[in-house]
Amino acid sequence: MPTSIPVNWGVTRECLRRGTITSLSVKGCLIEAKIEALYGKPIFINFRLPTERWLFLQGEVIYYLRNVGFGIQFTKLTEEDKGMLSLLVDYFRVESAAPKVGSE
Q1: Chain segment 33-43, per-residue pLDDT in tens
Q2: Within 10 A of 18 (CB to CB), how many other CB atoms are there?
């Protein structure tokens, strides 16, 4: 699902870098960030949910798009993580289907 979620990410749990999740699924996401290729590297991310809670996830970089960012596949997901991701994807699905103000 298309999104625009501010995210903290990094190669350690400290997640010192910033980016934006521009596409999200229950299996992974695309992070817009100006970086060099990190293909195959473990990545840690955290971001604030609409409920104001934080979600902490781990993944692996599976592709890199020059001048765009990188895609990660989530790894080591708990059942709670999977449930939260499913709810979040559903939330953005509803948001994207909602009529826009001023549209016909």
Answers
A1: 887 667 778 89
A2: 12
Beta bridge partners of 49: none
Q: Are 31 and 9 in contact (CB under 8 A)?
A: yes
In a domain, 103, yes or no: no
Look up the pTM and report it: 0.86
DSSP string, the chain: -EEEEEEEEESSTT--EEEEEEEE-SSEEEEE------TT-EEEEEEE-TTS-EEEEEEEEEEEETTTEEEEEEES--HHHHHHHHHHHHHHHHHHHSPPTT--
In a domain, 102, yes or no: no
Mean pLDDT, the chain, integer: 89
